[in-house]
Design brief:
The protein has 179 residues and is an alpha+beta fold. It is built from six helices and five strands, in the order βββββαααααα.
Amino acid sequence: MQIDNDFYAVDPQLRRQKVIVKLDPFQIDPTLQEVELWSLSGAYLGIGKKYQRQKGQHPPLPSTTTTTDFDPVYLKVLRVQFEQIQQQERERGIDYQFAGRHSPYSFPRFAAAAARLLGRTGGISCWNPADISKLQQFHAAHPQLHEGLLKQAVALAETKSISHVLFQLQSLLDPRKAK
């Protein structure tokens, strides 16, 4: 896919199809490294990542090791404070009441996001009772759900149906169960 003079790597199934390209207007990086792809009906299709076509490869990842002689005192102070906080949390142990709480990703938000990503209008009200039941059971069993995982699952689903999306979510949450 090409936008202006920049190329983006997309799923080969999307080539030669008309799609809606969404980008974040408040993105800090002006080089636009990623764009979201949506179908004309409003279903989420995935992400296109910037591709250096003339080089024949994706741009190299930035180096994680940086060498600098600059080491201001305030960074050392922050590091010491952070280590003290971490030590205090380790000494307190596990807060089992907090750990047992439900996901901050509420069921209504989960169901509405699934509807939006699948191109359905009406938010949570677009689901029939059987779909609501499936979604509720899945949400209750997986407190680690978040919208990023849901977007990945929709992009990976063979068909844009709730069963295929939930299967892909299950695969992303526990790859051993997908086999």
